[in-house]
Amino acid sequence: MASFDTASKKQTISEETMQHPPIVEYVAPQAHEKGFQEGIEQGIQEGKRKHILEILTLQLGDDAAQNFKASIESIDDLQRLEVLFHAALRAKHEDEFRQTINETRE
What we know:
The chain has helices spanning 2-19, 22-60, 62-73, 78-90, 94-103. The protein is mainly alpha-helical.
């Protein structure tokens, strides 16, 4: 009978641990918050990229915007995107904007 109780206790502990592992209770809120923050940042970056391309389309035309699309979509640095956003607002020629892209490279 004692061996049955031991086996039963092991099974109960195992089931409880599987349902609510202690590490998950500790790490999950932190991981959730980090993922949430990263998601927000990615959303801001994506919005900034979209606005840069829209401004370039208005300022320089669709062909110019398409010429810069791959470069802009590869940028993950929010500060650099902000600089390019303002450069797009001021750009009168493709070369002006291209120069800013080159100057802000990491």
